[in-house]
Predict the 3D structure of the following.
Amino acid sequence: MSKKHKRLPEMEAFFWALVKAIKAEKAWLNINKSIDSCMSDIDNSVQVSSERLMLRPIRIEDSGLVFAYRSNSMVNQYQGWIPVTIDDVRDFIANRTSPEINLPGSWFQFVILKNDDNELIGDVGVHFFDSDGFQAELGCTLNSDYQGNGFATEALTGVINFLFTRLNKRRVIASIDPRNLKSIQLFERLGFRKEAHFKQSLFINGEWVDDLIYAVLKDEWNSGG
């Protein structure tokens, strides 16, 4: 066989490898376009402001900053979701949070920014679990570098006011691991009542855990508890 004929299988193999690479690149571009399209639908006019903070909808470009504090498994040991890679955060933003607020069955995610330097220091999730539209669940995660300064209380106060006044909710709840004493104290300071203690009702991070339900009604909130 001539050298020319010997090179044909090599050229064919190179050709198909090139085709495979091009297809992979196109698939990655389509994924990015899909993410961009999804996130462009977010209503960025939804904002909550307070004296020191501004809360806005989470964006895909927040992934790195969110991963930096959310991935700390010691600080967030009672969280139901701890990302292992930054891609986990990107997937969370693109596929597990809603671009539309107040959509039944969805989670809407705010990020918390400091007004003085625009630093992203945490996030607040709102779960619109009630199909009738009168209730919501809250969750808050704060970068450990900024804990102990009242930021979580301030951020949650703003979101609760937003839920009761702008979205006309009647009841807001929080689901808390009984071992998470800091979160219990936080929601008690906000005027939430303990309504229930469910024994080993949730399977989180490989173990069955208890679940405390704290809640506040709109009338209670408006009257200062």
About this structure: Confidence is low (pLDDT under 50) at residues 33-40.
